[in-house]
Design brief:
Blueprint (H helix, E strand, L loop, with lengths): L2 E5 L14 H4 L2 E5 L6 H8 L4 E4 L8 H4 L7 E4 L9 H6 L3 E3 L7 H15 L1 H9 L15 E5 L3 H12 L3 E5 L5 H6 L3 E2 L2 H7 L2 E4 L13 H5 L6 E4 L8 H9 L5 E4 L19 E3 L8 H19 L8
Parallel strand pairs: 1-2, 1-3, 3-4, 4-5, 6-7, 6-9, 7-8, 9-10, 10-11, 11-12
């Protein structure tokens, strides 16, 4: 009897083209879901699936969802960590969770692209041109400006490297950051207070944990320059959403660029969509062809290894 495999959240319909699924298709019926599913609709679509391939954290698998999927045997997540999967519940239910490799400097690249877009009003001028207009904003040079990195892990370090190529002054803060580690990546370690008070651009590069949820709130945003911008390509809840919305609405910040949100996909009626001083992207930091080839290529490997009785990259 053929097993059923479901690929979730393939928004661009590229999963099957990003890898060779032929060996999997020989023994599995593959169902590709190109929209985001939740609640009863998700359970209904997955209830007959023995294998599910999840794209990062787009769909959550808490214990309550896993308990409604008794046929599930293998859950593949792209990437080697997924905070949206209850690993303990999966293990208790006998579900193997496997990961993949894949991410590189693409998030740091997007960060710098957003900084340049904010500084030069690229989105505003592009829209104006499409509407028949001509230049009407005055940009700012980023050379010599201060970039404050909240977090100097892998992505933060890569962002620092790129910012240095733009001849920006880079400062960084995280709870355990040492001056030596900061210097090794071309940054200066400063206090959290100094970072927010002195930076022309603040960029978030921390994982979402209990300690980082709401890390940047009204107090931090209030100390930023009125000419400063904040960029978040990490996780939405690290910044207090209500505090950020208020700061943007009353112009205590020049603007923001956001690739991540508290609720994803971002609801159509979210007030952020109505603000002209915000660049909004649909969580595309890792969405590049090179990464997708690794994600789905290794997902195929995970499925075949599981079928052979020797699961790979088990989380």
């Amino acid at each position: 009897m053929r097993a059923r495999l479901t690929i979730l959240d393939d928004y661009q319909s590229v999963a099957l083209a990003s890898a060779d699924w032929s060996a999997v298709a020989d023994s599995h019926d593959i169902d590709v879901v190109t929209t985001h599913l939740d609640g009863d609709e998700l359970i209904s679509r997955l209830e007959a699936s023995e294998i599910v391939v999840a794209m990062r954290e787009r769909t959550a698998f808490p214990a309550s969802v896993l308990a409604q999927l008794p046929d599930l045997k293998l859950l593949v997540t792209t990437g080697m960590a997924n905070a949206a999967i209850d690993l303990s519940a999966a293990h208790e239910q006998g579900v193997v969770v496997s990961g993949t490799g894949g991410s590189g400097r693409e998030v740091a690249e997007l960060t710098m692209g957003l900084i340049v877009s904010l500084a030069r009003h690229i989105i505003t001028e592009d829209r104006s041109m499409h509407e028949g207009g001509w230049q009407h904003t005055v940009g700012t040079r980023i050379e010599g400006k201060t970039l404050g990195l909240v977090g100097l892990g892998k992505q933060g370090a890569w962002a620092a490297e790129l910012a240095n190529a733009f001849r920006m002054r880079v400062v960084a803060w995280s709870p355990h950051l040492t001056p030596a580690r900061a210097a090794a990546h071309g940054a200066t370690a400063v206090s959290k207070e100094e970072l927010f008070a002195t930076s022309d651009f603040v960029s978030v590069h921390m994982p979402l944990t209990d300690s980082t949820r709401g890390l940047i709130g009204a107090e931090e945003l209030a100390t930023m320059k009125e000419t400063a911008y904040i960029v978040n390509t990490s996780r939405g809840p690290i910044i207090d959403g209500e505090a950020l919305l208020m700061a943007l609405m009353v112009d205590t910040l020049a603007g923001a660029a956001l690739d991540v949100f508290d609720v994803e996909p971002l609801p159509a009626a979210d007030p952020l969509r109505k603000l002209s001083n915000v660049i909004l992207l649909p969580h595309i930091g890792y969405v590049v062809d090179d990464v997708y080839r690794v994600f789905f290529g290794e997902a195929v490997e995970d499925v075949l290894a599981f079928d052979a009785g020797s699961p790979l990259r088990v989380l």
